[in-house]
Design brief:
It is built from 5 helices and no strands. It has helices at 2-9, 12-36, 38-46, 49-68, 77-90. The protein is mainly alpha-helical. The chain has one domain.
Length: 91
Amino acid sequence: MINRIINLLSSMKFATLLLLIFAFSIGYATFIENDFGSISSKALIYNSWWFSSLLIFLCIALTLNIFKYKLFRKEKLATLAFHSSFIVILL
């Protein structure tokens, strides 16, 4: 059971789905901010429990992919830097 959860969290399809949901939600928050102000977008999107959960799952998925694809090698240093910088931004 634990292996199935780890395999789901570390799959590229799951990470891609999370990134698409993330992009859609921040885009929607931008439209809310345009129409109703930044306080509204912060209250409806950025401070919501599901957005925080999305960021946590995205961070977990990126971290697991770093270890799954062994990005610590010299030839994959650029990919490691991309994943690591995205994790730092999320934190």
